[in-house]
Amino acid sequence: MLASVTGWIKQRLRLEVNADKSGVGHPWERKFPGFRINRQGRTEAAPQSVERLKTKVRDMWRSCQSVSRTKLRNAWRAYICGWWADYGLAEERRNIFGLEGWIRRHIRKCFWERWHSVAGRLRHLKQLGARGRLLKVAFSSKGAWGIAKTGTLQTVLNNQRLRGLGFLMPSDLAAR
To answer: What pTM was estimated for this model as a whole?
Structure first.
């Protein structure tokens, strides 16, 4: 039936039919402008929308940008506040809140890479309050992604400190 309708639209109306956007199915299989309805009948951010958020996070938190921490923070706040204004309407938010640890890890990774050398990392870790054994991570040969997961970086750049520096998460915006 769908093929005949598509053929009729193409032939009679001379319009192109976008098969990705046109279709039938259960509501939880279909996507509405950025949202979908799950099996429980609740709205949630569509997987494609969450993927776009993840792509933007990867792009924003690349360390090779020559921008100050303040500009990074302001760009992040503008983006996440705008994103939340759209997707904060979702009733089911687990797929959004589940990304927060991953987003914070990207932020910590960016900080680590921007500290460049052992001397810079030691200096910044000391400024953030690391003492004793916590400073050993500055000499690590692990990559930045692995270091961002370590207890040291999670201690000195904990959630409260990141929030205090202005790096908001969707749950912070939901609490408002």
So the answer is: 0.78
